[in-house]
Design a protein that fits this description.
Structural class: alpha+beta
Strand order of the largest sheet: 1-2-3
Radius of gyration: 11 Å
Shape: globular
Strand content: 25-35%
Number of helices: 2
Largest sheet: 3 strands, mixed
Length: 66
């Protein structure tokens, strides 16, 4: 999802349940993540072998570090 590159940061992954926690930089990016959840999960599994992401959790927006 190139349109979200630089706008979202993965902050945690629970391998036991397959949950990926992500933080968007703005509420609008968080909304896009919620709408595109299946694509995000598929992209994470494609890029990280053995990740087995099954779900994602979008945390409250936070400014991206400079």
């Amino acid at each position: 999802m190139p349109e979200l590159a630089g706008r979202v940061q993965a902050v945690a992954f629970d391998a036991e349940i397959g949950r990926l926690d992500v933080v968007p930089d703005l509420p609008a990016a968080g909304a896009q993540l919620r709408w595109r959840a299946p694509k995000l999960v598929a992209a994470a599994n494609e890029r990280v072998r053995g990740a087995n992401v099954r779900t994602r959790y979008v945390l409250a927006p936070a400014p991206a570090p400079a």
